[in-house]
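Hi U.,

Before I forget, here's the chain from the pilot set. I'm dumping it here mostly so it's searchable later in email.
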Amino acid sequence: MQTLIEKFPFQLRDAVEAVAQIHILPHDFEIRNICIFGMGGSGIGGKFVKDMLCSTSKLPIEVYNGYEIPKFIDKHTLVIASSYSGNTEETVSNVQALLSSQAKIVCITSGGALLDIAKHNSLEFVQLPSGSRSPRAFLGYSIVCQLGVLKELKLIDSSVLEQVKVAIDLLIFEQEDIKVKSHQIAQSMAHKLPLMYTSERMESVSIRWRQQINENAKMLCHQLVFPEMNHNEIEGWNSAQDKTLVVLLRNKDDHKRNQLRFEIVKDQLKHKTSSIIEIYSKGQSLVEKMMYLTHFGDWVSYYLAVVQHIDPISIGMIDHLKNELSKNENL
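Structure:
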């Protein structure tokens, strides 16, 4: 896992080079909305894409994590199905259910059933490098390939991918400093309940922190965004316990009202918990800031596993669940 995280900036670079070779045929109908399907480490890539494009995309982008298919999907919809292994049950089920929808379906996978379905039904696909036991470590490919598909279909311009290139240099330059700081934070976080808060435009980053802490450190944690947190969860702090640790993932250019909310809430929480950590992003663009905080969180999750003597690669409970599900394929 250490090696996989260290290589994240270079994975982004490889992915940017790979998407330059993507060729997606135009759709027969005007695309009016975008739906991204995926679960876990594959699904979070879609959430990143949605957040990155929120302020610039003229088309609505929705991300779905589950079995249900929105009824509005039709010939004017671009569907991106993302599954690293190609065998994610929910995503494979989604694509099978959408084959008759006339939607433009593009699969992003390394192989498995999803690639077989794509080839058998003449769907377009982007094939990822295969062989990893940890699909969550291929976030860079997931994000960049989805952006590449959108660019190839002329639904976005090249500016976001250019920002990814700048982010690569930032991560390479900052990586050693991130490792030192994340190790210190992990030592403070061990054996506690982490609660991550960030602004709404960075929700994907806080979700990634939660997912990585869940899978790598085998810990429960929680995340929510401002300002929504201020309308409900803040009252829950009246019953806060000593083992909580708050992580505020911040940007110096967040909305001014959100910055004020952070300061007020931080002052309130000082009386509820003794552990509040603030981490400010680095970089100029939103993409740079997202990639910086994401890489920081990946390192925190790794060092959390190390300081607690946990294997970050193993996912025994997930594997057991999948094995049990496979025994009941008719349900």
